[in-house]
TrEMBL record:
<protein>
    <submittedName>
        <fullName>Peptidase M22 glycoprotease</fullName>
    </submittedName>
</protein>
<dbReference type="InterPro" id="IPR043129">
    <property type="entry name" value="ATPase_NBD"/>
</dbReference>
<dbReference type="InterPro" id="IPR000905">
    <property type="entry name" value="Gcp-like_dom"/>
</dbReference>
<dbReference type="Pfam" id="PF00814">
    <property type="entry name" value="TsaD"/>
</dbReference>
<dbReference type="GO" id="GO:0002949">
    <property type="term" value="P:tRNA threonylcarbamoyladenosine modification"/>
</dbReference>
<dbReference type="InterPro" id="IPR022496">
    <property type="entry name" value="T6A_TsaB"/>
</dbReference>
<dbReference type="GO" id="GO:0005829">
    <property type="term" value="C:cytosol"/>
</dbReference>
<feature type="domain" description="Gcp-like">
    <location>
        <begin position="32"/>
        <end position="176"/>
    </location>
</feature>
């Protein structure tokens, strides 16, 4: 099965082509958040590199969030269009699941953190079992102060995700030696991991199409809040 995966949930845009769970090629871009300008050229370029066209793709995979509202809209709209044109299914993967799987450490619970503004983060609890990370809680939005209280009896824990870069000093102060903070280069959701998880989703048949695919926002945007929507 040929899979094209797209991740635009954060400042880093990435595209990967996989054959089943083997990554054939991946490209990423992290410059001025120009996702709307570079995503389609990246897809064209990566398909050329692996001698494929969109007709060769059997499964489209996309990171549906949570994350950047604009980035999620761009990613989902792009994959919707490609799925519509090719009449192929879509695997929807959350950014928190991708980050947890990238951490893939069996010793302690993993909490991916994505910035939700004003010292709030999107997160969930994951543990290692049978070769994969498995989510053990609901997806949640929580303030950093509440996060410390929530995890008081569970330390040590592992933090990963782009919010680790944003709040690294706060996390070091609050958790000290009771938390492992992943390095920045491991804290970004990447399309290759989205593709691997997408292949697992396809195996169980939990797929979307260009009509049913929706971004996973988890909260209203700041513009909606200001407008009282």
């Amino acid at each position: 099965m040929n899979i094209l995966a797209l991740d635009t949930a954060t400042d880093v845009a990435s595209v990967a082509v996989l054959r089943n769970d083997m990554v054939l090629h991946e490209e990423s871009f992290n410059y001025n958040k120009r996702h709307s300008q570079i995503v389609v050229p990246m897809i064209k370029h990566i398909l050329e590199w692996v001698d494929m066209t969109i007709a060769d793709i059997d499964l489209w995979t996309v990171d549906i969030g949570p994350g950047s509202f604009t980035g999620l809209r761009i990613g989902c709209a792009t994959i919707k269009a490609l799925a519509h044109v090719t009449a192929k299914p879509i695997a929807a993967v959350t950014s928190l699941d991708i980050l947890a799987e990238r951490a893939a450490l069996p010793d302690h619970p993993v909490y991916p953190l994505i910035d939700a503004q004003q010292q709030n983060v999107y997160t969930a609890r994951y543990i290692w079992s049978n070769g994969h990370m498995h989510r053990q809680s609901d997806y949640m939005i929580i303030h950093l102060c509440q996060l410390k209280k929530l995890l008081m009896d569970e330390v040590p824990v592992i933090f990963t995700g782009p919010a680790v870069s944003v709040y690294r000093d706060d996390l070091k102060r609050d958790f000290q030696d009771d938390a492992i903070l992943m390095p920045d280069y491991r804290c970004v959701p990447m399309a290759s991991m989205a593709g691997i998880l997408g292949e697992h989703i396809a195996q169980v048949g939990d797929l979307k199409d260009y009509i049913t695919l929706l971004p996973f926002y988890m909260r209203k945007s700041q513009a909606e809040i200001r407008a009282g929507v």
